[in-house]
Amino acid sequence: MAGKRVLIVYAHQEPKSFNGSLLKIAVEELTKQGCSVTVSDLYAMQFEPRATRNDIVGRLHNSEAFNYGVETWEAYKRGGLSKDLVEEQKKVQEADLLIFQFPLFWFNMPAILKGWMDRVLVQGFAYDLSKAYDGGLLQGKLSLFSFTTGGSKEMYSKEGIGGDIRYVLWPMQHGIMHFCGVKVLEPHICYAPENVSEEKRKEMLTAWTQRLKTLWKEEPIDCSPQWYFK
């Protein structure tokens, strides 16, 4: 939709990967719609995933015992976060839609993306303990988790060895995005692209293109435990 701002946080090492193709399609299709698209390519940026004292510029609130959560909260309030965090927070603040594109690693997002969540979405910016979930500080934004798996769709079913894929989504969608007040769109999952035919991979890419064409008409999921565990 023309005028909308999109931030895609991309976590894959190889531009020629299937994830890279999904990213390319999203940038092209959303740009074609008139959206302003920004990409944070975490590996290309050599984004630092570790949450350390280096994230605070200047004095510490308590130099006797380092508490990352407290220190980043205090630093945010006085404008004392490191430059890379300020830049990413600005991208988030300006975005109407956040897309996270990544391969599933060990039932989770890659460490570099988790590090982005840990470091960028600090208290005071993304949430406050008295303002979380529907009251989170990033209200008015949408999010979408688009990712690939190594296992098949059958493996990630309730009857499958991996269990329902929604169990995996609980900490990402509910524990992070919903906690910060962000509405969540249905995830886009490409199951085992490395283990299917070239024709099937093309079908997956086409399906992503088609979904993006009507993405702005979609309603968010019901952000409740029932959606994940019913």
TrEMBL record:
Instruction: Show the coiled coil region(s).
Output: none
Tell me which species this is from: Cyanistes caeruleus (Eurasian blue tit)
Q: What is its main location?
A: cytoplasm
**Mind telling me what this protein is named?**
Ribosyldihydronicotinamide dehydrogenase [quinone]
Supply the alphabetized keyword list: Cytoplasm, FAD, Flavoprotein, Metal-binding, Oxidoreductase, Phosphoprotein, Zinc
Q: Which gene encodes it?
A: LOC111923829
Give the first-level EC class, as a single word. Answer: oxidoreductase
Quote the cellular component terms of the Gene Ontology held in the record: cytosol
Give the enzyme's EC designation: 1.10.5.1
Q: What subunit structure does UniProt give?
A: Homodimer.
